[in-house]
Amino acid sequence: MTCIETYATLRIFSATMHPKLIGETLGVEATDAIPIDPSSKYRVRRETNYWNWCTQQRVNSADNTLHIAALLEVFGSKQAELESLRSAGCETDISCYWVSTGQGGPSLEVATMEELARLGLPIWWDVYFDRSANV
Questions:
Q1: 90-115: per-residue pLDDT in tens?
Q2: Checking DSSP bridges between strand 123-129 and strand 91-100, what pairing results, if any?
Q3: Where do the domains of the chain lie?
Q4: CA 131 – CA 123 distance, rounded (Å)
Q5: CA dist., res. 59 & res. 135, Å (int)
Q6: pTM of the full structure
Q7: What is the pLDDT of residues 56-84, one digit of tens each?
């Protein structure tokens, strides 16, 4: 595998629900939570509350499947809570940070895809290539 760094983040955005309430609904403490800030220079921060749970400091591996598995271990039993948040107008997804030295790419097992679909969680990768890394 050519991945040199990866992590996965469950992200939840809401125009109306405060991040504290999102965390209370899930029963999980956020890695990061940012309430709407009307004075922010960034539109998304002026208009959207943000809550996330990230594997970056929790999983020490360059295997993206282990990061996603850790996320599913915490949130796999939270289908009703995630549906409740989406019904209240929240947007949910999983963002994966992935840095590579070249050939190859992230992958998912069929069972993982099924679990993500059951939870209603789209997944995407933010991919970077580090040409300076010694391979």
A1: 999 999 999 998 777 888 999 999 99
A2: parallel
A3: 3-129
A4: 25
A5: 22
A6: 0.91
A7: 999 999 999 999 999 999 999 999 999 99
